[in-house]
Structure formats: structure tokens, C-alpha cells
Specification:
- This protein has about 350 residues and is α/β, with parallel strands linked by helices.
- The strands form two sheets. Strands 7, 8, 9, 10, 11, 12, 13, 14, 15 and 16 form a ten-stranded mixed β-sheet that branches. A six-stranded parallel β-sheet has the order 3-2-1-4-5-6, with helices on both faces.
- It has two domains: about 140 residues, Rossmann fold (3-Layer(aba) Sandwich); about 180 residues, Dihydrodipicolinate Reductase, domain 2.
- Helix 1 packs across helix 8 and helix 4 packs parallel to helix 5.
- Strand 11 and strand 12 form a beta hairpin.
- The structure holds nicotinamide-adenine-dinucleotide (NAD).
- The site of nicotinamide-adenine-dinucleotide (NAD) has 24 residues, from loops.
- The site of nicotinamide-adenine-dinucleotide has 24 residues, from loops.
């Protein structure tokens, strides 16, 4: 089947997030949004008013039967991702599935097999991998500029929105795990997490998560929707420099700190890890702090473009099935550890 000049998109799930996909795919040159679906008649009516050219369906299966849809975006609650994505791939539609790809690893793997079998693009909606600030962190790490990465930490807190179907780990930490995997080009080996359920039964509102990555890189994620302050921050500590990212900063999201701890021997700086501890002393270096200029674009728009490119045969590795499955796998291990009172759990 040849790919049309304008890829026709159907958006399934028109709650808070779905309309953002409709807006982005509507303005991109290579796509048009032809249909959307939601069982909530009020949501459907509101979206129909906002995007008058888009056909509305009360049942996503009607949308999948619509021959004027080449690809779908699935922005339904996480617990429904597998069922809807599976039906979409079986109907030969390309699928961009919101994060996390599925609730369970076996489901995510089944989707990957199905996408392969049907020759369709499957992508997970890890929006932050398309964020210019996160891309900058990646460049700084990959260039070797900050030296060896010692540890990363992330804080993602706010008061609400509180979900009904998944807890703060699958809802919020999904972003941070995806970011850390991307920055380190690796998956965590082991996790240990404590979380607590205060508001609803069975759904954690807050979690403190430790992750061990290959090469003795340590990471920590704090997520909560029960917090007085909205924070979206990451710190990366390297052996030569340090980085911070603040999605809400007014100056610019990324700061590069020429700071570190060095061993000095005979006037020569060395990384402390490699020296003989008998004949050196440690100094901290307090150098310049720079704020790199970034070309900012709405991350969701960049993600949408990436999906269209993947449908046309472009690379689909950044947030493709492998990356999506890796996140689901880590989230499952985090849940196992929380259930075991914080015991370390291997990520399999
Ligand atoms: N990438 C991001 O930054 C980001 C941000 C917000 C939400 N999300 C993800 O988007 C998804 C939706 O989140 P939301 O905040 O819009 O939730 P929401 O509850 O506001 O909206 C979900 C919508 O899906 C509809 N729905 C439920 N079952 C359906 C089905 N079978 N078919 C069609 N529609 C169905 C509901 O009626 C509702 O309107 C979640 O997976 C969430 O994790 C991602």
C-alpha cells in the first residue's frame, strides 16, 4: 500500500491530551486529521466544535473501520492502550500510543510483534524525548563534555491532576524513565522504590525511586501529584561538569555548570577516581555557569513529525517499540519493588 501525500490521522481519546494531538497533526504539512473517537458524548461534541472538519465517532472501532484513516493516535487512559492499539494494528493502522505504551511488558511485546507482522509503525508517546532541553542534555553527555556521568536525579511534582486508572509511577515516572534511558542509552539494571497511597485505594500518589544503570550510574526519581509545588527538574552530575534542566525556568531550561571535584597532584588536575589516594588532595572547581541558547519547538509537534517520518520509512528508534517496552519493563519492576516494601528488584 503506498503512503498518501497527507497521512490521514484518527485520534482516539479526546480528553485532556487528545485535542493537542488533533491540533498538531492538523497544522503539519504531511498530515490531516480526518476523525476522532471518544465514548464521552460531551467531549466529542466539544472537540467537534473546536475542529469542525473532523468526523466524530462514539466508538473507536467505527474509526478503525473508516478507510479515510491511515494512522491513529491513542490518547485514552493507560489501562485501555493495549486493547485499542492491538485493534488498530489488526486493522492495519499505524499507531502512536500515548505513554506508557501499555501497563504490562507482555502486552507491549505483543504490540511490537503485531506491528512487525502488519508492517506498521508503532511508536510510544514519550514527548520529552522531543523536548529541546532534554535533547541538549543528551548532546552534552554524548559529546563527553561533562565527563563520566555519576548520577541523575529528577523531580516531577504538582498538586494534581490525580488519575483514576494508574498511579503516579505509570503516569509521571514514565516520563523520567524514558528520559534517563535516552540520556544514558541504556536500561536500568535494578530498581528500588517506596510509594504510598493516600487518596485512592490501590493507586500511589507519591514515589521515591532509585535506579541503577550500567557503569555504576545512579539515578533517582521523585514523583508526586500531592505536592504544593509544580516542579519539572533534572540534574545530571558528571565528573567534569554538571547540568540542570528546568522545564519551567524563565531564563532557559538548561544550565551547564563548569563545576566539579578534582584531585590535584603536582599542579595537574585529575579525576579523583583514577588517582592514588595516598598523594593527592581534592579541590572543588567553581567555574562558569552557561545557559545554552535553544531553538524551542512544541515537543508534541516534533513528536508528531517524527511519527509521520516513521510511517514514511524513516527511523523509529527514539521512541519506537524497543524504547517503549523498556519503559514499561522498568515501571513494572518499580511496582514490584514498591509492593515488596522497597526491596531491590532486577529489571527483566
Ligand atoms: N505525553 C504526555 O506528555 C502526556 C500528557 C498527558 C497525558 N498523556 C497520556 O495521554 C493519555 C490520556 O490522558 P488524558 O490526560 O487525556 O486523560 P483523560 O482522562 O483526560 O482523557 C481520556 C479520554 O479517553 C476517553 N476514552 C476512554 N476509553 C476510550 C476508548 N475505549 N475509546 C476512545 N476514547 C476513550 C475518555 O472518555 C476520555 O475523554 C494517557 O495515556 C496519558 O498518560 C500524555
Amino acid at each position: 500500500m503506498s503512503t498518501p501525500v497527507k497521512i490521514r490521522i484518527g485520534v482516539i481519546g479526546c480528553g485532556h491530551w487528545g485535542p493537542n494531538h488533533i491540533r498538531n497533526f492538523s497544522v503539519l504539512e504531511g498530515s490531516a486529521v480526518t476523525a476522532c473517537a471518544d465514548p464521552d458524548a460531551q467531549r466529542l461534541k466539544a472537540v467537534g466544535r473546536q475542529f469542525p472538519g473532523v468526523r466524530t465517532h462514539g466508538d473507536y472501532r467505527q474509526l478503525l473501520a473508516n478507510p479515510e484513516v491511515d494512522a491513529v493516535v491513542i490518547a485514552t487512559p493507560t489501562a485501555t492502550h493495549f486493547e485499542v492499539a492491538r485493534a488498530a494494528l489488526l486493522a492495519d493502522k499505524h499507531a502512536l500510543v500515548e505513554k506508557p505504551l501499555t501497563s504490562h511488558t507482555t502486552e507491549a511485546e505483543a504490540l511490537r510483534r503485531l506491528a512487525r507482522k502488519h508492517g506498521r509503525a508503532l511508536m510510544a508517546g514519550h514527548t520529552f524525548l522531543f523536548n529541546a532541553g532534554i535533547r541538549k542534555l543528551k548532546d552534552c553527555i554524548a559529546s563527553g563534555d561533562i565527563g563520566r556521568v555519576y548520577y541523575l536525579r529528577s523531580t516531577r511534582t504538582n498538586l494534581g491532576p490525580i488519575r483514576k486508572d494508574v498511579g503516579a509511577v505509570r503516569d509521571l515516572a514514565a516520563h523520567d524513565v524514558a528520559i534517563f534511558n535516552y540520556l544514558l542509552d541504556a536500561e536500568p539494571l535494578e530498581v528500588s522504590a517506596r510509594g504510598e497511597r493516600f487518596i485512592r485505594r490501590g493507586i500511589e500518589d507519591v514515589a521515591f525511586i532509585s535506579l541503577s544503570y550500567p557503569g555504576r550510574v545512579l539515578a533517582n526519581i521523585h514523583v508526586s501529584w500531592l505536592d504544593p509545588k509544580k516542579v519539572r527538574q533534572i540534574v545530571v552530575t558528571g565528573s567534569k561538569k554538571m547540568l540542570s534542566w528546568d522545564d519551567l525556568a524563565s531564563t532557559g531550561p538548561v544550565m551547564v555548570y563548569d563545576k566539579g571535584v578534582f584531585a590535584v597532584r603536582g599542579g595537574v588536575y585529575k579525576e579523583p577516581y583514577y588517582v592514588n589516594y595516598g598523594d593527592f588532595h581534592l579541590l572543588t572547581k567553581e567555574g562558569d555557569v552557561t545557559i545554552p541558547h535553544l531553538k524551542l519547538e512544541e515537543p508534541l509537534r516534533a513528536e508528531a513529525r517524527h511519527f509521520l517520518d516513521a510511517i514514511r520509512g524513516g527511523p523509529n528508534t527514539l521512541s519506537g517499540p524497543k524504547a517503549g517496552i523498556a519503559v514499561v519493563r522498568a515501571l513494572a519492576a518499580i511496582h514490584d519493588s514498591m509492593d515488596a516494601g522497597g526491596k531491590p528488584v532486577k529489571v527483566r
